[in-house]
Design brief:
4-stranded mixed sheet; about 550 residues; extended; 13 strands; single chain
Length: about 550
């Protein structure tokens, strides 16, 4: 029943939007919205949210995706984009039926015994309907909006053209629009391929098969395609209904503790976690917490998990050096890193949290501050780590509503203590220590020979010392600019004097009474004077 995607190579960037009347009209709409919000004066977080909402549901979805990427946007922009709400008109039943029948190449009533005409919910990419299979199972059918792929591809291509207006604004120094649009297109393609969500659900179920109180909807792969997802119908209560949960005998503190403990397991043990665990994506069914909407999942490699544990221990032990090493190992460095400044920033951060007990610490806020610190020092975090920050921030909000006395830092510390006592961890530590000791021993044997070579080179005058002055780039650049302006001023003065002497000579005069060589000299002197003056006034403005 299922079939592969018929789209062209989806990993490619969207082609430049064709110059059709429809695209020209849409581009005018986008430019009109941007100009109405005076983007030439920069884009504040609130202004960005208002622009996205005004551009329509496609852009709202892109904004929601972007709100998870604290490696691409400053934290204040992400927090503002989290307020976005999708308000779209649902597809008609006839449109839904046409999509399903086109995917199955069969009539809808040949597959489903019943299919509710009213949707359970509608969003910018898809909407969901309750149905029942011919075999009797109750299911939810998630149907993609027709043409949404082409609409998003067109809008992103048009955005690339519109974003050229922002190249010369102050916002371009904060937001890298080309990178943002490329990342949005990549993530949007994943969101629009329901086979990805189906694979995520299978992996999540496998990793949590031994956890009695956690589950996710079962996927009916036979009926799932890139545009239609059929999953088990999950009844019960959402965490948006705490009063109903309490009335039906549920202990909210127990739900919160189990939810937090499992989420820490997803991070530290599985390295595969739900990136958006808001109350609407969590349902209580019997004695189980069911995670819904697994289209956006975060992933951490074994190395990332190990580094995350090292970072957590470093924060607990106020170890600035280790936390600095972890940030450098995790992130991608955009240019040269000022290690002295990075060390001072981390030390300042740890000092703010140093006097707190674990019950007072806000893990999500701490991670957000770490991301900001890394960004300020030219270090970009990988996608999995930034999604982790968003997930923790969302989950902490859920816990604040249902079990405010719970603290993620304490729960994570308990889980890490359990891991530290495991035989596998101890074996890995001993193995790593043994290898490090062996490596150090080998290097120690090389020291006498290396020292001898160094002394020989020194005697022959071949030793060179490389000295790097950290934090001196800005003063050196300022000195270079100062020397350049001084040279230009001296040259301008020389041209003025030389041209004046030429005016006193016997050279034939031009119409203004100035010899041609003198006129050229005066002109060059004026240009150099303007250059020096412009540099001076730019510096005064800064």
């Amino acid at each position: 029943m299922n079939k592969t995607s018929t789209r062209k190579n989806e990993s490619e960037e969207p082609a430049t939007a064709a110059r059709t009347p429809e695209n020209r009209h849409r581009l005018r709409e986008i430019l009109g919205v941007l100009l109405r919000h005076n983007i030439a004066g920069g884009v504040t977080p609130v202004k960005l949210r208002q622009i996205v909402e005004e551009l329509g549901p496609t852009f709202v979805k892109l904004g929601q995706i972007l709100s998870m990427r604290r490696d691409m946007l400053p934290a204040e922009y992400c927090r503002e984009l989290e307020k976005l709400r999708t308000d779209v008109h649902p597809l008609t039943y006839e449109e839904v039926q046409a999509v399903v029948e086109a995917e199955y190449e069969s009539r809808l009533d040949k597959v489903f015994a019943s299919f509710d005409k009213e949707p359970l919910g509608a969003a910018s990419i898809a909407q969901a309907h309750a149905a029942r299979l011919k075999t009797g199972e109750r299911v939810v059918v998630k149907v993609q909006r027709p043409g949404i792929y082409d609409v998003m591809a067109r809008d992103i291509a048009l955005l690339r053209r519109a974003a050229r207006l922002l190249k010369h604004t102050g916002t371009a120094r904060v937001l890298d629009f080309d990178t943002i649009l490329s990342e949005l297109w990549f993530v949007a393609q994943q969101e629009m391929d329901f086979l990805t969500e189906a694979r995520n659900a299978d992996e999540f179920r496998r990793l949590n098969q031994d956890v009695a109180f956690v589950d996710c909807p079962r996927i009916f792969h036979r009926y799932t395609t890139p545009r239609v997802l059929v999953m088990e119908y999950v009844d019960g209560f959402t965490l948006q209904e705490p009063e109903k949960l309490t009335q039906n005998g549920y202990d909210l503190n127990e739900i919160g503790a189990k939810l937090a403990d499992n989420y820490v397991k997803q991070i530290l043990d599985d390295g595969f976690f739900h990136a958006d665990p808001h109350p609407g994506n969590l349902r209580i069914r019997g004695k189980q917490i069911v995670f819904l909407d697994l289209g956006m999942m975060g992933r951490l490699s074994e190395r990332d998990k190990a580094l995350f544990r090292r970072a957590a221990r470093a924060i607990g032990e106020q170890d600035v050096g280790t936390l600095k090493d972890v940030l450098l190992a995790l992130g991608v460095h955009n240019g040269r890193v000022n290690h002295a400044r990075l060390y001072e920033d981390i030390d300042s951060l740890l000092n703010r949290y140093g006097g707190m007990g674990m019950a007072e610490m806000d893990l999500s806020r701490m991670m957000e501050e770490l991301f900001t610190l890394a960004s300020d020092n030219g270090i970009s975090m990988p996608e999995g780590v930034t999604l982790l920050g968003r997930g923790l921030l969302t989950l902490q909000g859920v816990l604040a509503d249902i079990a405010p006395e719970l603290n993620m830092v304490e729960i994570m510390a308990d889980r890490m203590r359990e891991r530290a006592l495991s035989r596998e961890e101890l074996a890995d530590m001993l193995k790593g220590g043994g290898l490090a000791f062996l490596s150090s021993g080998r290097k120690a044997l090389d020291v006498p020979g290396q020292l001898s070579d160094l002394l020989k080179m020194t005697v022959k005058g071949q030793t060179k010392v490389g000295l790097e002055l950290m934090g001196s780039e800005d003063p050196l650049e300022a000195a270079r600019k100062l020397v350049g302006r001084l040279a230009a001023a001296l040259l301008a003065a020389g041209l003025y004097v030389g041209s004046s002497l030429l005016c006193l000579s016997d050279l034939p005069s031009a119409p203004l009474g100035i010899p041609a060589p003198a006129a050229v000299g005066y002109l060059l002197a004026l240009v150099l004077t303007g250059y020096v003056a412009a540099g001076f006034f730019r510096k005064r403005k800064r």
